[in-house]
Design a protein that fits this description.
The protein has six helices and seven strands. The chain is of the alpha/beta class. It has two domains: 60 residues, no CATH class; 87 residues, Rossmann fold (3-Layer(aba) Sandwich), CATH 3.40.50. The strands form three sheets. A three-stranded parallel sheet has the order 3-4-5, with helices on one face. Strands 1-2 form a two-stranded antiparallel sheet. A hairpin with a 4-residue loop joins strand 1 and strand 2. Helix 1 runs antiparallel to helix 2. The protein is globular, with a radius of gyration of 17 Å.
Length: 169
């Protein structure tokens, strides 16, 4: 496991990775069906996490272990239409709730839009993703106090690992 406290940029793409990324970011080379091949190529050049600046913020991605990570590495505007739609509907001082936050693509993007005028609540049950989510929020100078390491559902559930309760309905 990579120490998430290491500064952003510690895992910048190597020269060879930057050259491959420049090539594969040309449409349609970054499309989904080619993504697994390009991830293997990038990993062969240098394995492990990669620090990437996207349209939405700064992220430490682990492209061989997470589909969102690989998509964000290869396509820095990944999910731009959805994020723009959400940004347009979010008012100053509003709250954005990211259920299934994963590594924080939406939490970071909307958090960077809101900054001090609003709040982002990130719900993510996977402990590895929670660690990466918090790191990505820190890389963007966003607060981590809105991260909740729980699952969301329609009934009350007790997580025996950390004794967390959450109910929605």
């Amino acid at each position: 496991m990579v120490d998430p406290s290491q500064r952003f940029g510690a895992f910048a793409p190597s020269l060879a990775q930057r050259l491959v990324l420049a090539l594969i970011r040309i449409p349609p080379l970054y499309r989904g069906s080619l993504r697994p091949f390009w991830v293997r190529v990038l990993n062969a050049l240098r394995g492990g996490p990669v620090d990437v600046t996207s349209t939405f913020g700064r992220f430490r991605v682990h492209p061989t272990t997470n589909l969102v990570d690989s998509a964000l590495l290869i396509h820095p505007c990944y999910n731009q239409a959805e994020i723009t739609f959400l940004r347009d509907g979010l008012h100053e001082g509003g709250t954005f709730v990211d259920i299934g936050a994963n590594i924080g693509l939406y939490s970071v993007a909307l958090g960077n839009s809101l900054r001090a005028s609003g709040r982002v609540v990130s719900i993510e049950p996977n402990p590895i993703c929670v660690e990466r989510l918090r790191a990505n929020l820190r890389f963007n100078d966003l607060p981590t106090d809105g991260v909740f390491p729980v699952a969301a559902g329609y009934q009350l559930v007790r997580n025996t690992r950390n004794n967390a309760l959450l109910t929605l309905g």
